[in-house]
Design goal:
By secondary structure, the protein is mainly α. The protein has one domain. Helices cover about 80% and strands about 5% of the residues. It contains nine helices and two strands; from the N terminus they run ααααββααααα. Strands 1-2 form a two-stranded antiparallel ribbon. β1 and β2 form a beta hairpin. α3 packs parallel to α6.
């Protein structure tokens, strides 16, 4: 208790908490976009449940990883080298997660562009199988995003209570934003394509970071914000056109 009171009285700890919450919320947006797109494939009565389970898994994974901070730090230790390039477990996980994200986003884009290509796992009539498949995919990407999130937290502060608070706040924000974001994506088909484009970019970024190419997150999110702004203007333009036509 005394240690917590000492932390609470330190202004640098509050500054670190604010910065870490902001970073965790931003990192959670990637996770939330993926969850929203996948759960929108489910029957309407299962979507909210799927989102809650996906976000709950994200929280459990993050808190579980925080309980093994020493192990997480070791994930950045090189385990083998290829042509002089050292790879750690974190690099391997980021590359695998990035490849999965690129594959999934490409598959979804193909499905949107060519809807007559044939059924996939989401088109089956077996709701339980579909729900299970969606949860498995969310779990895989939750793991990748959680490891990236916790390694970022470890790099920003050494105080585990600060990390726990930041993670919990970020996941609560995800939980509050999940349903409105999913409904917005579902009502606006062009937003789906934009979000899938974001996932492609994020997947490519994860692969690049896994191979040691540091890509400042600010550039990625600036590009996403600019694209979202342009799409917002397009939506306003289409709405104005419909009003003039009506």
């Amino acid at each position: 208790m005394d240690a917590l009171m000492t932390l609470a009285a330190d202004p640098t700890v509050w500054a670190a908490l604010g910065a870490l919450i902001a970073m965790e919320v931003v990192l959670g947006i990637d996770n939330l976009i993926f969850i929203s797109i996948l759960t929108n494939k489910l029957p309407a009565h299962q979507r909210a449940r799927g989102r809650r389970i996906g976000i709950g898994l994200a929280l459990i994974l993050r808190l579980g990883l925080l309980s093994t901070v020493a192990f997480i730090v070791q994930l950045t230790t090189p385990v083998f080298s290829v042509f002089g390039k050292a790879f750690s477990w974190r690099d391997i996980i980021l590359i695998a997660g990035g490849l999965f994200l690129v594959w999934k986003a490409t598959k979804e884009i193909h499905h949107k562009v060519d809807p007559g290509h044939g059924p996939d796992m989401f088109d089956t009539g077996a709701a339980a199988v579909t729900f299970g498949g969606v949860i498995v995919q969310i779990l895989l990407l939750d793991l990748v995003f959680s490891i990236d999130s916790i390694i970022t937290a470890v790099g920003m502060t050494e105080h585990v209570p600060v990390m726990v608070i930041a993670v919990i706040v970020a996941v609560l924000v995800m939980l509050l934003a999940a349903d409105p974001l999913a409904r917005f994506i579902d009502r606006n088909p062009t937003i789906v394509m934009l979000a899938l484009g974001f996932l492609l970019m994020i997947g490519g970024t994860l692969i690049g970071e896994g191979f040691g190419a540091h890509i400042p997150k600010g550039y990625i999110y600036a590009a996403m914000a600019f694209s979202a702004l342009i799409e917002g203007l397009n939506m306003l333009s289409r709405r104005a056109s419909r009003k003039r036509g009506g």
